[in-house]
Inverse folding.
């Protein structure tokens, strides 16, 4: 698959992400690490150690959604665990660069678009956990929709991205047919987010940091560990630039 590079707007870090959701994405839903069952209460320290899920938004009709789904299906068929994205974040004033590798998750109107979970057999507890996770994601999606500017919301009511543009003009003001101004109804109230609106989440598993002012470089990697809940942590190592 041909590589793609895109510019996105960072919308902040998610807070209080259910750790089961992190396991689903980064650990393929497995609840055992080296034979140790790690399902259940992870404890406050472990939960806080993964408050780094990065939030963006996108359109379900965009090419990147279809391309990532194809990549995910291809890797799932090969039985491989792999990252699906690398983000480059450059800070020109401080001459710092972050290369953040991890997995993407798209959250739509019914929850995650696809799952990394490789467990074929599920019980009632799994269903309950999935419902709780989806409630959390739905609330985050709704909040992000409300935080957008009016112009940003309007984009998700347009026709498919990339098709030829057409518009209408009334009283000298250009408009696009069928697009509610500001994503609001006639009374000025916000409309519910359309199915086209997704929040795009990046779950980091490796961070390569470089500071050019003194050539300091450090690599942080998420480690599931082998001693149960307490073994899950970030490992850091300074390396040559």
């Amino acid at each position: 698959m041909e590589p793609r590079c895109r510019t996105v707007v960072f919308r902040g870090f998610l807070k209080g992400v259910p750790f089961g959701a992190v396991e689903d994405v980064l650990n393929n839903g497995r609840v055992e690490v080296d034979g140790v069952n790690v399902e259940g209460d992870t404890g406050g320290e472990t939960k806080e150690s993964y408050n780094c899920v990065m939030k963006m938004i996108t359109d379900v009709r965009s090419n990147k959604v279809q391309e990532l789904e194809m990549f995910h299906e291809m890797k799932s068929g090969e039985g491989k665990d792999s990252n699906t994205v690398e983000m480059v974040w450059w800070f020109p004033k401080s001459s710092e660069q972050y290369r953040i590798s991890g997995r993407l998750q798209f959250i739509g109107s019914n929850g995650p678009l696809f799952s990394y979970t490789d467990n074929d057999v599920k019980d009632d507890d799994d269903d309950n956990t999935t419902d709780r996770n989806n409630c959390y994601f739905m609330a985050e999606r709704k909040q992000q929709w409300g935080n957008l500017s009016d112009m940003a919301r309007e984009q998700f009511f347009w026709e498919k991205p990339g098709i030829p543009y057409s518009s209408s003009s009334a009283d000298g003001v250009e408009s696009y047919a069928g697009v509610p101004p500001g994503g609001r109804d006639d009374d000025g109230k916000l409309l519910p987010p359309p199915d086209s609106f997704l929040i795009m989440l990046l779950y980091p598993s490796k961070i390569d940091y470089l500071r050019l002012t003194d050539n300091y470089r450090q690599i942080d990697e998420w480690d599931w560990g082998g001693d149960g809940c307490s073994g899950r942590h970030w490992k850091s190592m300074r390396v040559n630039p």
About this structure: The two ends are 30 Å apart (CA to CA).
